[in-house]
Structure formats: structure tokens, C-alpha cells
Design a protein that fits this description.
Blueprint: H1 3-15, E1 18-22, E2 27-34, E3 40-48, H2 54-58, E4 66-70, E5 74-75, E6 94-96, E7 99-100, H3 113-119, E8 123-126, H4 130-140, E9 143-148, H5 155-163, H6 171-175, E10 181-183, E11 189-194, H7 199-207, E12 211-216, H8 221-226, E13 231-234, H9 245-251, E14 260-263, H10 265-273, E15 278-294, E16 299-311, E17 321-327, E18 333-338, E19 343-346, H11 361-378
Parallel strand pairs: 3-4, 4-6, 5-7, 6-8, 11-12, 11-13, 13-14, 14-19
Antiparallel strand pairs: 1-2, 1-9, 2-8, 3-9, 10-12, 15-16, 15-17, 17-18, 18-19
Amino acid sequence: MSSRAQQYLENLKSEKNAALILEDGTVLYGTAFGDTTKDKISGEVVFNTSMTGYQEVLTDPSYCGQIVTMTYPLIGNYGLNAEDIESMFSKVNGFIVKENCNHPSNWRAVEDVNDFLKAHNVIGIAGIDTRLLTRKIRVHGTLKGMITTNIDADINNIVDTLNNTEYPTDQVSKVSTKSIFRSPGQGYRVVLIDMGTKQGIHRELIKRNCDVTVVPYDTTYEQITRLQPEGIMISNGPGDPKNVLQTAEMLKPFIGKIPMYGICLGHQLIALSAGADTEKLKFGHRGGNNPVKDLRTNRVYITSQNHGYTVNKESLEGTGLTISHINLNDDTVEGLVHESGLLASVQYHPEAAPGPLDSNYLFDQFIDTIKTWKTGQER
């Protein structure tokens, strides 16, 4: 490195108090906020392209173990409120922004991002060139990274550590409910398997007057059967679906016997349970503007997405599953239907939060499937 470049870095470091270090050796200096008592935190660095919805992103359990980059340059300008959370706790490892607004302006705001991150023990870093970082992830693929407030740390040592660190495999167990609980309703009995569910999914079922019983990811077939469900929904969640193959195995006996619907991780688990395969995407889909085409109607929907894995198309042969939706950006699988007519799933989030509500009707389709199945059962 030239003396001029070295001097530039020294001047930059003197103005900053934190660094983002990536496994490829990239170092970006910024200003720490949130829980700055942590001297370092590592995780999988991903980006989200939503222009709004940072509160929902921060409280989405699917981000467990990840360091989230928001591509929109100004974050925090409308604060955070008590209504738009997707879980009670933030599970992100870190938060990366270009500019953090410390003086939000919104009548619903009760705190700013800095105070929220402090309360949830999450460190953030501001002043990062998020456009550069996003482009790097798009080219290289998802990267492991570390946020540290020790800007004099040995960079080479940290890079070596990151390269030799395996991705976690226990995220679902960290975010799934530990016990069964019920939200009574006068409608159909639905078991919601909590893989790290967002409140939005629960809310949509409650809106339709469902009698919802939420169960942990490792609930057995026998335990679910005893609940006498009229429908089963498998929620979103974090990580590699192959880390929770026990859930996929548990679902197998239900295929074709009872209405089931999978969302995001739930969609991938349904594919695995039917004998298909999944694979990791280069940098994943995370944002509120992903175009998805319904192959049955040729209609295109703008969808909310958050996932790093996808169902392998070629592996669907002989499973009884056919593709119902595709992603128009990269032609990946976005929806599946089963030959029995009782099983369907989508890779995206019909409950949105954040994102468009275009696909909210899918919850109605799930209820209609239960109604048709119940009518057939009663004949």
C-alpha cells in the first residue's frame, strides 16, 4: 500500500469508531450505534432492498444470525412504534446503514433506531457505503463479516477467523416458540408450525377467524394429530431448510391427507418432505419489490421476500409437486402445488410486512381449501 493510501486510511479511522470487516479482506469504517458495548459481532452479511420497513426487518426472526444491510440510504426517519413489530425481540446480529436518523418524525414513533438496538443488544454501524457493499455481495455472493469497535484489530486475523467459521445450524431452535399456545377463534382449527414465524402470518389467520394453535418446530406427528387440525400452516424461518429435516420428515404423513400451506422456509420444507431438494442462492432475495408470475393465470405480483435458499426445479420430478409461481428476476421457484389439491406453498411472504399486500389473497385460498376438504369429509 502506498504511503498516500495509508495516510488516507489513518485519517478515515480517526473520524470513525467502528469497522465492518468481510471475509474477502474488505474493510469499511463507520460509526457504531445501538449496543456499542459489544466490541465485535460476526454473521452472514445480507442486504434488503426495501425502501421502508426497517422495523419489520429488525424484528423478523428469519434474520437470526445475520448482519443486515439496508440499501435505502436513510434509515430511521419515521422511528419505531409498538404496532409494526413482527416478533417481540430482534434476532439480527448486526445492522448496517448509510445514514441513521436520530430525530424521527412520525406521530406513531415511540423510539428511534439507536434506542431500539440498545434495548435489543444489537450493534449497528452507520456511514457505510451500502451501495458498494451491495454490489460486492451481488458479485461475490453472500459474505461472512464482523462489526467491531476495535478499529486497531488485526485485520488479517479477523479475516482468517471469518473464513474458518462455519455458518450456524441452530437458528430455528433459537427463534421457534418453546411451548404450544392457542389463539381461540370460531373458525377452522389451524396448527401453525412456528419455524420463526412473523406476527403477520398469525394476524392473517386471526383475521379469518381461525382457531390457531402455534406449535414448536420439533412438535411430533402424534402431537399435531391430537390437536385435530383442519389445516396446517408451516411458517417462515431462518437458515438452511436441511438443518431442520426432522420437521420435513414429520410433515410427510400429512401430505394429501389434510390441507397444508407453507410460507418461505415452510415452502422449502414442504418440497423436502415430498422428496425434492433445495439449494443455496448466490445472494438471496430480500426486499419488497420482487416480481413473481403465477403460471396458472399469467398474472404478475410484486412480492415481499426474505430467503437465501430455493427449491431445485429438476428435483421436483416424481414428487407430485408442480411449479405454480416463478421469480421473473432469476426464474427460481416461487410457488408449488400438489396433485392432491390439498398442499400448496409460496417462497415469498403473502402477509408482506414490509412490502406490498398483492398476495394477501393466498390466505383466503388456504381457507377455501380447508372448506372444500371439510365439505368432502362430511359427505
